[in-house]
Design goal:
The structure is a homodimer. By secondary structure, chain A is α/β, with parallel strands linked by helices. Chain A contains 17 helices and 26 strands. In chain A, strand 21 and strand 22 form a beta hairpin. Chains A and B meet through helix 1, helix 5, strand 8, helix 6 and helix 7 of A and helix 1, helix 5, strand 8, helix 6 and helix 7 of B. Chains A, B: This is Tryptophan 2-monooxygenase.
């Protein structure tokens, strides 16, 4: 099982596997499965006894990890103080809507100009059904959820390098029906021709044939795949005589499908974190951040940039600067829970041991870019009957155009114009905001004729250029997981670390929350000892 | 293509195909695809010129067909009068919530006792993305939609007669991953062993092997299927060191899968009407009826039971009885559009020709039963992480337990406890409401341990016993489609018929709407002539 395991859960290998698709290194499946760590394992905060009364914890960062810790530790009686460099809480759990401002490092300031009610979740945007930790808080805090359509057999796949099927707007329903139909036919004929007599008993062969007829909807007589209703119709059925019953449209040819590589864009089942049911908070992902903030906001010091950490055997002292006034202050507490991304923590002046400092530097952070495009008209719904889901493409730097799963049938909508990563993200992020929008439009109009005309305004982010984040998420490799990760998990003296980076759910909010649960339990255990 | 066509679109054949699953005639797929007519073809009402001013149309029935006609004809200037036997509009487009009353023929009165905010759509419950006609009105009338989770790889399949996999709560994700994995392995080895050299070129074999490795996530070396993340984990990944990266759980054996027949519960792609994205109106399906009613209610005469239809060359006279006062009245109009189900129309005293009367009698109506069960606790979400979708089972008379796609994470919820059909529906409908609830509980607790304890109250319907409907939908067969259907579509003199029964979208609201569009256009054409 070991090799299947590694293949399944390291992002690097996953990307490698995805890069094989289409033969030209595009990352459709990787895009679809970012934050490769999969399912959460804890379904509620740790059940702890004893009181933290009289003990204090300084928490660095008011992202989901920091606020989770503040919320739970406060309930246990601890005095908590959260230092947050930004003027708002949530960390990467952000939503860009009218008035939201972002100035990337070395970049011009963007001020989101979407209409009221329109927004883009430019950080995390999905909550899978098995992320019970995130769902614990949406339930507890009564954050209303709605379904995020993460799987839509009607959203196009569009390959520039798709061989005989290049530059066509293909529907996944067609591809899945036809690939699996042709494959079923091939195997059914092998059974019929007794090519599998050595491998399978007569009973199993009969059952297999039965299954294949169903799976591929093969003709009863000649076992041929000739199309099926699931792929769509040449003429749709409707009322009256004409149109009468619909005829399934003609299947794509087996050779063309194989030569295009398009069958490999999809797979037998979605990878675990991508399966239905997928959720998003009604009104934007930051509703989760706001729900936390409502409960722990009084413990958060905003505009407080951490400058130094000094830790002893009995307490921890953190110096911070008020970014509005420039004034420096310190806070001393019994414990420190540091949830700063390692990309940021490595720039803080600390008296950690060299081993610990090196461990902090050992992990890379993912360059990631996203752009939200407000469209005057929901042409994908109106013209193409695509309601949510992802248009997958090998257009370099685009990877996916994702359609909004909210405000169905309304006039306007904000779609995700690209979701890029690594070298692609670095290249695109070098463009100005206006150039990024132009880049997205030039690609999108290849797929949707109405794209450019409908365009209203854009808001983009390059997470590797965002101060206090400097990347989308921690990217462990086998080496750093083995050597640096355990050291960081352990912490040093009275400083413990938490965040998505200290989980196998990197890039997911569940990773941040579960890591916080784990580390706050350790603080409490030590405080009670 | 002819045979594929017939196989695809007649419900009888479809049921036959589904009945083969499991070898014991259960109808999982049929349940999943009721209302077999598939995709609508008209995306908006007919564009008509000229005015109907001074002309009158009496419309029988204020279901979606009748109200569509009333709305559009009224816009054209016609004087419309709608006769509706019930005290409310909508026809089968109903939602049972607190206080909703139903007295089936010969049955006791049920008064829905769900909590405020809880409901069941006991008539139509799904709007597929390609039913552009239904979606035309939800958009025009601004009826808010939400996603109805119609496809959930985490909702169980539970087979009493599932051979080696009987009486287990299987997740579709496991079944799909494993069946397709094993099949991919088998075919990959056939390629490797040169068994397919005659059928495929070298290039195609290479591409096929590549595809199969991806589709089945086969081991690179021995091409074996050993599980995959998509099937779930033995131990889920999470924060910290322990649990570390998850191990995919062990696959179900190929022989067991084949012998159980469970692979045939699912198929390469969902049939067309069942594909994502599926919608439901926020707050209940009857929001569509109410939106129509708001616009045409002033033209509706409620409690008006149609008694006789007399039609001449110049006008139509309909006699109706006020069911509250017993008073009989008549209305005469230039045209009559009759949207009564044929099951009901056949009992009305008319002076139609014998040929037309016989055609009206030629179609059967489907016995259909549903039960809504309010549960005190959403145990399917809390205990099993199933958010919406259908638990499919071969338990006789149950077929599906469908979980609600609304009020996520709230305390209570109403699930669909069975959805039965034909002889099963007839058998279950013979029970009293309390007995039906007991029947549903006895089945449900086999699958969900918390089922009976969580039960609060029930509301059931047997559509074949509901006055003015007498069945779920029209069930054409090849013979009646060929002989009776064209006659009915044509109408007689100044009486035209409309409804889901005059479409190839039987059982769907889109069928009713599109049929109304078609027939109102014919009325207008004749009025303008």
């Amino acid at each position: 099982m070991k090799s299947a395991l590694n293949r399944s859960v390291t992002r690097r290998d996953f990307l490698y596997r995805a890069a094989a698709v289409g033969g030209t290194g595009f990352l459709l499946n990787a895009m679809n499965a970012w934050g490769m760590g999969i399912a959460s394992t804890m379904s509620g905060p740790p059940v702890l006894s004893g009181s933290g009364k009289g003990k204090s914890v300084v928490i660095l960062g008011a992202g989901l990890a920091g606020m989770t810790a503040a919320y739970e530790l406060n309930k246990l009686g601890y005095k908590v103080q959260v230092l947050e460099a930004r003027g708002f809480a949530g960390g990467r759990c952000q939503t860009a809507r009218k008035g939201f401002e972002l100035t990337e490092l070395g970049g011009e300031t963007q001020r989101c100009a979407f209409d009221a009610g329109q927004y883009i979740n430019h950080g995390p945007w999905r909550i899978p059904l098995h992320h019970q930790s995130t769902l614990h808080y949406t339930r507890t805090f009564e954050v209303p959820l709605e379904v995020m359509v993460n799987d839509n057999d009607h959203a196009f796949v569009y390959l520039e390098n798709g061989g005989p099927l290049a530059k066509q707007r293909l529907r996944p329903a067609q591809i899945k029906a036809d690939m699996r139909g042709h494959v079923a036919e091939l195997l059914a004929k092998s059974v019929q021709d007794h090519l599998l007599d050595r491998q399978l008993t007569d009973d199993d062969q009969r059952a297999l044939l039965d299954y294949l007829k169903h799976e591929g909807q093969l003709e009863a007589g000649d076992l041929r795949y000739k199309g099926r209703t699931g792929r769509g119709f040449a003429v749709n059925p409707g009322a009256g005589m004409n149109p009468g019953p619909g005829t399934p449209s003609d299947p794509l040819g087996f050779h063309d499908l194989l030569a295009s590589g398009v069958g490999k864009v999809y797979s037998a089942v979605q990878d675990y974190p991508m399966q239905n049911t997928m959720f998003q908070p009604v009104g934007g992902m930051d509703q989760i951040a706001k729900a936390f903030e409502k409960r722990v906001g009084r413990h958060i010091r905003y505009h407080a940039e951490v400058r130094t950490i000094r830790h002893g055997d009995n307490n921890v002292t953190v110096a911070w600067k008020d970014t509005q006034t420039g004034k420096e202050s310190t806070v001393t507490a019994d414990y420190c829970l540091c949830t700063l991304p390692l990309s940021t923590l490595r720039m803080v002046d600390t008296d950690f041991s060299d081993g610990f400092k090196n461990a902090i530097k050992a992990v890379a952070y993912a360059p990631v870019g996203k752009i939200g495009l407000q469209m005057k008209r929901r042409f994908w719904e109106e013209d193409d009957h695509i309601y949510g889901g992802h248009v997958l493409t090998d257009i370099k730097g685009i990877n996916t155009i994702s359609l909004p799963s909210t405000s169905w049938q309304k006039k306007k909508g904000v779609l995700l114009g690209y979701y890029n990563y690594q070298t692609d993200a670095i290249a695109v992020s070098a463009l100005s905001p206006a150039e990024r929008a132009e880049f997205a439009l030039a690609a999108g109009e290849k797929i949707f004729p109405a794209y450019r005309d409908a365009f209203d305004s854009a808001f983009s982010v390059a997470w590797h250029r965002v101060q206090y984040n400097l990347g989308g998420w921690a990217e462990w490799n086998d080496d750093s997981r083995k050597n640096a990760y355990p050291l960081l998990l352990e912490g040093e003296k009275r400083v413990l670390l938490a965040g998505e980076h200290l989980s196998y759910l990197t890039g997911w909010q569940a990773g941040a929350i579960e890591s916080a649960w784990q580390q706050l339990a350790r603080i409490h255990e030590r405080a009670m000892a």
